[in-house]
Amino acid sequence: MKAALQRQFGLSLVELMIAATLALSLLAVLLTTTSKQAQMSRETMQLAMLQQQGQLLLNLLQTELQHLGFWAGFSLEQMRQLQAPSEPVIGDCVQLPLDSGSFPDPSKLLIPLYAELGSGQGMSCLGQAAEHSSILQFKRLLAQPLEHAELKPNRYYLQVEAGSLRLVDSDTASSSGPAEFWPYLHQLFYVQWQQGIPVLMRKRLIRNQAGSPRIHTDSVMDGVEMLYFEFGIDSTLDGRANYFLPLQQMQPEHWYQQSSRIVAVSYYVLLRSLDVDRHYLNDQWYPMGQSGFQAPGDNYRRLPLQGTQYFHNAALQNHGG
User: Count of alpha carbons within 13 Å of 11, Cβ hemisphere only?
Assistant: First the structure.
């Protein structure tokens, strides 16, 4: 009688199999749900990071580009003729025969803005720039003069005193009379691959601790995969862009800005996530002005950005003043 009662409270093999199947089904649903939630969380985090990086980069480009062509009211011809340090710049960025490098040279035209496609093989300071991206180089003054006591030892300045112009540092700047000191800027932006990550890089003119001019290199932002530029050309010299030219169509005469001026730049940027998502395949085509980028079928998310910056000083002054 006891044995019969014990058998009544037990589970049969079929019942055990059904219970196991139900448990496995519930586990599969739970794992699938958890996997989808993890995937959605990964996607949300990557997109949020791209958006955040994108906003920072757009702010940087706007800050750097809005005052292009600012020379404190002086013409490019006057800037070309000013007194500049005779010491050669260590690692200078020169695009021969177009450009004189960091410091103006009376024997050469001054090019305040220059860009090129590819790896920058024409630039003397570049050897590892990304081939599919563009390079942007510019020279200008910062739009705020300083007093002599405010000068920093690692920078160069346009000193304006009694109608004379010369580039000085904190040691050679005159302190005997009234003078204005405008910070002088020479920068170059490009993309470089570092351990499988595309990085926005910057080269800029500084004065090192030994007192010598040199080009300093630093990384600006990880995940910037491509830069591309188009330029607003003022062909009537009235301060307004008559048309935009893609970088591929820019000629030396455009960079010289004698018969026309560059008054605006459209920039296109492609950001790439730093981490892969194995559940995501990217084979999209990203149009960027009259250029573009074909994703190679990898597992990285990308975010295209674009903007147009008209220069605050209305027009880059020509060589004739």
Answer: 8
Q: What tokens appear for 205 in the block?
A: 């003119």
DSSP reduced 3-state for 149: helix
Neighbours of 296 (CB within 10 A): 8
What pLDDT, in 10s, does the model give residues 34-81?
A: 666 666 777 888 899 999 999 999 999 999 998 898 999 898 889 988
Contact 309, 65 (CB under 8 A): yes
252 cis-preceded (ω within 30 degrees of 0): no
Cβ partners under 8 Å of residue 65, min gap 6: 265, 267, 309, 311
Indicate the pTM of the whole model.
Answer: 0.84
Residue 169 structure tokens: 């540092």
CA nearest 111: which of 280, 321, 316, 320? 316
- What pLDDT, in 10s, does the model give residues 2-20? 555 455 556 677 767 777 7
